[in-house]
Amino acid sequence: MNPEGKRLCIRAPAKINLFLHVTGRRDDGYHLLDSIFLYTGLHDRLTVAPASDLALDVGGAFADGLAAEPPSRNLILRAAQALRDATGTREGAHMRLEKAIPLAAGLGGGSADAAAALRLLARLWGVPSDKGGREELLSRLALALGADIPPCIDSRPARIGGIGERVVPLDEPMPAWGLLLVNPGIPMPTPSVFAALRKADPPFTEPLPARIPWQDTAWLAARTRNDLEPFAIRLAPALGRLLDRIGALEGCLLARMSGSGATCFALFETVAAAERAARTCRAEMPHCWSWAGGFHVPDEVPSLLRLEMD
Ligand code: C5P
Q1: What's the pTM value of the predicted model, to 2 decimals?
Q2: Site residues for ligand 1, CB cut-off 6 Å
């Protein structure tokens, strides 16, 4: 247990895929990806407290969807059990999740929650952090839980390769972009979108060089895309109309789908411009969920982990 017997709390930020290229397919059917993950100011919040058993309680705007899921499929409980098994600890935890990220939405909310649980419980249970052993263990457990969980362990802007397990932090500073997220409320399960791509069998995209001018939105628009977007639009044509509309919002620099959808994002010069665009969206499309704000600043990450008195 952490020495003070205190509750620990962490933010689990949503990610967007600035671009997502499908560059190949492995023998096991998983697709090779070339992508950039950027972490956003939208986040779930996970709190853990020492206990003798494992329990999870969920609140927040998107709690209902998670409550309907059997505990054996819940990624936080699976992450907790995996860490318990790997370390042999007999400690438990009472966990509380405030769910603000829409589910199955291409924003990596479930992955962020699982990664946050691994980090927080490793700290709560005193998993030794010597010689990078803890990071290595957490990355290994994260990958076993899901292909895109390892990058969420430290939520820094990163170039992603392999099936999601190759994570190279980006050196360049994060632009001060404003971000708009819009979700039309259409469920878009990741396996269905990959299955549609597989059936159509389009040519794979060539991987981009290691260094790319990813902060330049004109370059991004010309040279990158989300390869899953046309297949998600085929499954839900309303998504195409939504993308056209947000791409035409005043001040929009780039609009595209994130991950396997159905959330779409738009980048703006400033957070104020993104917030103005969000007001337009809410007036025109009251049935859509939307969020506007900024990105996670990497330097803020260490301060996100804070101790709370019981
Ligand atoms: O990793 P996750 O469990 O979210 O993936 C769900 C499904 O999406 C996989 O079972 C696979 O069909 C597909 N997928 C893929 N290639 C990836 C990631 C996911 O084909 N890199």
Answers
A1: 0.92
A2: 30-31, 33, 146-148, 163-164, 190-191, 194
Each residue's pLDDT, cut to its tens digit, for the chain (310 residues) gives: 455 568 999 999 999 999 999 999 999 999 999 999 999 999 999 999 999 999 999 999 999 988 888 888 999 999 999 999 999 999 999 999 999 999 989 999 999 999 999 999 999 999 988 767 888 999 999 999 998 899 999 899 999 999 988 999 999 999 999 999 999 999 899 999 999 999 999 999 999 999 999 999 999 999 999 999 999 999 999 999 999 999 999 999 999 999 999 999 999 999 999 999 999 999 999 999 999 999 987 554 443 444 443 3
With contact defined as beta carbons under 8 Å apart, do 208 and 215 qualify? no
* DSSP structure string for 107-149: S-HHHHHHHHHHHHHHHHTT---GGGHHHHHHHHHHHHH-TTS
Instruction: Tell me, in angstroms, the distance from the centre of ligand 1 to residue 54's CA.
Output: 28
| Ligand 1 mutation target, pool 31, 190, 228, most atoms within 8 A of CB | 190
Please enumerate in sequence order all residues whose Cβ is within 8 A of that of 42, keeping only pairs 6 or more positions apart, or say none: 13, 14, 100, 101, 107, 181, 291, 293
